[in-house]
Amino acid sequence: MRSLSNILGKEIRELLTPATVLPIIILAILFGSMGGIIGDVEGEASKPPIIGIVQYDDGVLASKFSDTLKENDAIGNPRSEVVYAGNNIEEGLQKVSEAGGVALLVIPEEFGSQILSNSQGIIEVHWIMQGTGVLDTISSTSLDFLISGANYELSKYILENDGDVDVELALNPTVKVDTTTFKGKEMEGISPSAISATLSSQNMLVPIIVLMVIIMAGSSIIASMGLEKENKTLETLLTMPVKRSYIVLGKLGGAAVVGLLMAVIYMLGLGTYMGSLQGSTGLDLANFGIKLETIDLLLVGISLFLSLLSGLGLCLVIGVFARDFKSAQSLTMPITFLAMIPMFVLMMKDFATLPTAVQTGLFAIPFTHPMMAINNLMFGDYTLVLAGIAYEAVFAAAMMGAAVILFKKDILVTGRRKREKKKDSRAWSLARPRR
Amino acid sequence: MAQDLVKSFGSFQAVKGVTFTVNEGEVFGLIGPNGAGKTTTMRMLSTLLQVTSGSATIFGKDLITETDEVRKIISYLPEEAGAYKNLTGRKYLEFIARFFCQGEEVYDMVDHGISLSNLSDRIDDKVDTYSKGMTRRLLVSRALMFKPRLAILDELTSGLDVISAQHVRKTVRDTAANDTTIIVSSHNMLEVELICDRLALIADGRIIELGTPSDLKEKFDAANIEEVFVRAVSA
Ligand SMILES: Nc1ncnc2c1ncn2[C@@H]1O[C@H](COP(=O)(O)OP(=O)(O)OP(=O)(O)O)[C@@H](O)[C@H]1O
Ligand SMILES: [Mg+2]
Q: Cα–Cα 20 to 30 A to B214, which of A38, A321, B100, B157?
């Protein structure tokens, strides 16, 4: 029993190092704050949607419809918060978007007469889309809910008062025509949920690629440092007549080439996957002017490359502290988490719709930028992409500089356990007979 | 050559001012008890550790300011070292040789290295199939094959059998005869007596004795260096 607890103790001490515990703490904090964000969004979703109404038809049916939108529901809660009611679409859109609203509903002049002549009344929904994340489109769901509520009331009214309207039609009196405005682009005939559904595959896959490449290339570079120490080849390498910066560049370059190769392979896979996906949904965003130009692809490539370089630089700096292969493995954890944070957050919410503090945090992580580059470029948002690239370049340069400096220091040879060694030597000199 | 070298790790001084000169073409031995500071001194001389204070020149090149120049003329064999496990012995020697020369010269150097290593047909096997002694022989030949002007060899024959150790000692003497100066540390007193022209005895970060083996034996009235060691350290 004693020997079992002896082994147990040793193993636990080996496994419980800051490098293994810290990432878990970070993860816990991350999930906590994610919970916070999701909670916020849920709160938002249960709040009545903020809308504007433009009503060109002042007939009784149109009024019935728009009144229902404004009224409280059966249990007395407001169905919506109307920030504009008038007859100017431009003005309405502006008001709604200033209020952070979801959409402007336009009821055209012939709304009522159409229904009475047995065809569905058109409701033009001018969506103001905030972001493409899963949680960003929740408010659009609540508007859909609101409209179906209004439809229900309208159906009741029609059935009670206009006996000659076809029952079938009376049950489905209106039809929605969507127009979505997102990042200054107006797209007719498409709703935010359709856009985000189409983008969601890409919103998931690009971050996954970035994550995979960073983890693989990054851990390979940390492992290479760990191996050099474990196999005791580092000391020899460091006495060779070669500039420290070349050693750093050699290690980075090797991992970067392999990383890019992996990225290209993933990209090819992704390309075919996306192609087949678009074929199946039948929604080609290019028809709405949402597509990437060659220059955009180039920017994505640059962003990806720089984030890879930043990640590798960071890994090399971390790798300096690896004692051996095993400790190197646990040191890759922080990198993994650093790459997972933007992935999860961006899947849920668009960068633009995040609180400033979270935005700052995400911006500081170099891996964020390639993850959101495609999305931003599709909607012509160059500022964020270019700023990201500039930041990544600075970050990568700083990491490489730090690595070169560390390579000139003792720490590579002596490791980071100075204090323990010192204790050993004291113990030795105490054990020795005093002269 | 080495002037008052000091190395501190934090508040602990591992080497407390070491001064010695090594003559060209000489085999200079560092001996001393465990933890005396031999490895630390050698690591400083081979540019691996930053010198805390003091100075050293190696063939006129300043250790601290001309580090890159120094690296071109020295070679260092760590007390515990390995080679890249996925390479064969030959490929490893080629990898190292490419730091010092190009083209055909690489192969000449590697051939020289192979003959020094005495690994014969095992040279084309992967390093991770080597025994400890075989790896050591590969590394010794790695350190000597490019005829450095100064070779710093820490615990030269650690892990070698009698025959291999003999071979390595002969290699070291031959290399010294061919214009390479050698600093070697060892715990084998027979060995240092056999190959060293002069010896420095380090204890507790300081040189306590320095001289030729025969001078030292005379001074301590000892039959061999082992006795010198014991008497000097316990004095
Ligand atoms: N990285 C380090 N951090 C702190 N102290 C160190 C470090 N490396 C060595 N020391 C201390 O410096 C002293 C000299 O060590 P060094 O390795 O030079 O001894 P040595 O003479 O080579 O011994 P050995 O014969 O056992 O190889 C020892 O007390 C050792 O504990
Ligand atoms: Mg030693």
A: B157
